[in-house]
Amino acid sequence: MVWGIFKKELIDSLRDRKTIVLSVLIPIILNAGLMLLFDRVVLNKSEDTMTIAVNQNSQSTIYKWLYDMKNTKIKELSDPMEAVKDGDAQVGIKVGSDFDQKLKNGGSPELTIYSDSGSSKSSAAVETVKNIISMHEQTIVNEKLQSAHIDPKVLNPFQMKVKNVAKDDDGGMYLVSLFAQIIIVLGVMMGGVSAANDLFAGEKERKTMEALLITPVKRSHLITGKWLTISVLGAITGIFSTVTLVVFIKFFTTNLPNVFDLEHGGGKLIAALLIAIILFAFLVASIQVIFSLFANTMKEAQNYISPLMLLGMLPYYFLITVSVNEMTTMHFIIPFLNIYALIKQLIYGVYSLQNVLLTIGSTLVCIVIFFTIARVMFGKDRWVLEKS
Amino acid sequence: MIEVEHLTKAFKDKKKTITAVNDVSFSIQKGEVVGLLGENGAGKTTMLRMIATVLHPSCGSILIDGIDILKDPMKIKRKIGVLFGSETGLYERLTARENLLYFAKLYGINNHEAKGKVEQLSVRFGMKEYLDRRVAGFSKGMRQKVAIARTLIHDPEVILFDEPTTGLDITSANMFRQLIHELRTEGKTIIFSSHIMEEVKLLCESVIMIHKGELVYHGKLRDLYAEEKSEDLNDIFMSRLVEGA
User: Fold this and answer.
1) Residues of A in contact with B84 (CB under 8 A)
2) pLDDT tens-digit map of A10-26
3) What ipTM describes this predicted complex?
4) What is the CATH number of domain B2-244?
5) B143 in reach of chain A (CB within 8 A)
6) Is the pLDDT of residue A103 over 90?
7) Can you give the three-state secondary structure of chain B, one letter per residue?
């Protein structure tokens, strides 16, 4: 009987335009839009031209250093600070007219660099300019030390090396992990939301629920059939989101195709991700059923479920600053947080059976708890009948 | 036979308790057509919902053919067919046929038999033309036919209609009245609630009047007319409500 109910509910839901829009169109638009935006704009390797404003008529040595830089446009302006403020330049440099003279005589001439900390382009440009100036500063220091018969190594009592233990990443993997988490989780939550609203609150509103309850079918069978429908729609959307994400990255981006390394242990990663998505869909469906039972109309159900979606996104923000190596057991025990954590780890190619099992275990426990609550509610007249 | 004994239903709403049906007792013979009369909020729908096993009584009992609905609700569900409203309980995105087949399945009717029953009902109610169209585009009359067919798909012995002609045009309402006659000749036991006194007068042998959840009258219409020395059911209804108030 559960199968018959599930089959009917699935056909009914798939004929609903809202389900198709939320399950198919939105994942495609989200995936395509975000990935193309980041590929073409954020990760674009072709370097932008940097504009540096310098004070007018200055022929200082320092400017000669800057002229040698690639992709740089130097503007001679009377007020470099204003140029940065107005967005006409990313960096402004002001030096006194006696800069070269003082430098030659061993004095300590001043130079001021203007930047706009609110602009990532300006911050990056300032870093580049500072590196160039520091390099020349080091050369001058070395020359001075040598002329004083001092070994320049005296300034470096030890050698410091910083080595990255994380996977080599030019930012692409970080971005993909950020978006994969939100796209997959949102996909699961949105895929079943329309059916969840419709199959409980909607049926109460249209009085089809009453017609169902009159039939000699156990309420446990009715709720199980409906819950399976919502879960399957959520899981399908989650999986569809994942597939479209991978397809877009592999075939439609220029800077991201190498993010997924599916040749080394890809099978395990895909299996773990599939299980996590499916179980998460069942958990989300259980919670959506409860909220839909609370409501008497579709509109009311939407009002309840929308904040739930926002709450479901909170763990995502919590994990943004946590690297895959910093994740602890707790990250994989707490429901919702664990799905984000697991997706992040899997994108980085980190496969830990323990973490996968912890995620599965804690999600299963939550499914049992929430489905039991939903089942108890479905057995009570006040939650299943429209208020007359 | 339907036997209702001291039936009561109270709803708790925050700190208040609202008694929708209060200590109501009556019995209905097999094959009888009974009109259930009462104002809006009198407790008609609550009473029908309890007989239909959808709502659990707070106290009292309901027996259908000697079976207690609380003890064996599944057996009772197979015996009764219910239509709440004139055209409700249909899935808009399914065709009329899919709606009927789905409910046939829920009543445990096998696929082959269900297909036969759907054909039979579609001929009976003249639904052939639109049987394979989605319900969403149906007129009220078309929906009413499908809803009635859905109510009768498992050939119930007892049929409950809750204000079945509300909002229907004259043709559809007349079609429904004709159906009640036919079902009566088939020996079905029918309870239907209505606001239309002429309809009750025309179709019922007995009436149950309830007011604010309490039974005001139950008996044969002809006995009521004799008691009141009038055949104006509207007047009788109003005077009984005043007495019951």
Assistant:
1) 207, 210-211
2) 999 888 887 777 777 87
3) 0.88
4) 3.40.50.300
5) no
6) no
7) CEEEEEEEEEEEECCEEEEEEEEEEEEECCCCEEEEECCCCCCHHHHHHHHCCCCCCCEEEEEECCEECCCCHHHHHHHEEEEECCCCCCCCCCEHHHHHHHHHHHCCCCHHHHHHHHHHHHHHCCCHHHCCCEHHHCCHHHHHHHHHHHHHCCCCCEEEEECCCCCCCHHHHHHHHHHHHHHHHCCCEEEEECCCHHHHHHHCCEEEEEECCEEEEEEEHHHHHHHHCCCCHHHHHHHHHHHHC
